[in-house]
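Lecture notes, unit on protein representations.

Consider one protein chain, 354 amino acids long.
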Amino acid sequence: MEHRTDPVGYAVIGAGIWGNLHLRTLCEDPRVRLVAVCDIDLEKAKCVAQEFGIPYTYSSYEEMLKNPEVEVVSVATPDFAHGAPALAVAEAGKHLLCEKPMAMTLDESLAIIRTAKQNNIKFMVDFHNRWSPPFYITYENLREGKLGKPRYAYFRQSDTIFVPLKYISWGAKSSVLWFLGPHCIDSIRWLFNDEVREVFCVSRSGLIQSKGVDTPDFFAYLMQFENGGVANMENSWIVSEQNPTIYDLKLQLQCEEGTVFLDPSHSRMIEIYRDQKPSGWEDIVYPDTMVNPTVHGKIVGLATESIRHFVDCVWNDKTPLVSGIDGLRATEIILAVEESAKTNKPVAVVRHEV
C-alpha cells in the first residue's frame, strides 16, 4: 500500500488534560509534524506550543482552520464543547479525530457525519477501549466463536469524586454519563455486535451538588439489545478518593459458552508500598500500566494506540476502525438514558440513518 512520504500537518484543539496526551503522542510520531495548537486560553496554548515546538497558536479554531499547513485535527476540548469545533473541522475538509462524545446533540452529530462524508475526510471518534488488550482479547474470542453469543453483561466504569471536584473544572457542564458512558456503551455495542433497542435508567443527585458542582452522582441503566442480550451498566462519580486508582472498571460478560471477567483498573499488576514517603506522596501506589504509561521515555498504552491508528489511516489512506456512526449510536443511547432517568420509564432508542 502506498503511503505519504512527507509528515502530515497536525493540529490539536484543546490544550488541557487529554489534548496534552494527544500532543505527547503525536510529537513522537515521525509521520506527524505538529503545526498548531488552539485553546480558548491563549496563554495555555502558547505554553504548550513552546513545550512541543509548535509554530502556531490560536484562541480561535476558526482562524486555525484557515492555516493551509493544517491537514489533520484532533478535537480534545471538554465534553460539552466537541460538536461545534468538530463540525468546523469537517467543513474545512481536514481529517478529524474527535474525543468522546462526538457531540451532545443529535443535530450536531448528524451534521458532523454528513459533512465528513461530503468532504471525503477521514473521521474517527476516539473510543480507545477498542485498543485495550483485555477488551480486544475478549472481542477476538467472541468473533472466533470461542464463547458463543453474549447474553448478559455487567459493566461498571466509575471515577472517584476527585474527578468532578478537582480533576476537571467543567463537571457542572457535563455528567459522568457523558464523561464515561460513551466508552462503556461503545465497548458493549462492539462486543455484542448488536444495537440497543431500549434503555431504563435510575439516577440520583445530591452528594456532588452539596460540594459545589451541579451534576448527578451516578447513573445505573439497563440496555436491551435487538437480539435479546442485556447489559447492566453503571457510571458513578462518587467513588471514594481512598480508592487506589482514579477510576474503577469492571466487566463480567456471560456468554452461551463461557464467561469473561475483566478488571483493568484494579488488576494489581504492580503495587508499590512505601515505608517512608516524601510529603504529598501516597503510602500505596498502583501505577498505570494500561492507559498511557511511559516506557523508555515513550508514551504507550491503549489511549495512545488509538491516536496512532488514526495517524496510520491518514498516512496509508485506510478507513478508521471506529466510525462516526459509532459516535452517533453512543449519543443516541445516552440521550435515551437521560430521558429514562427523568421519566422513570423505559425509553426506546431511535437510530438515525445518515
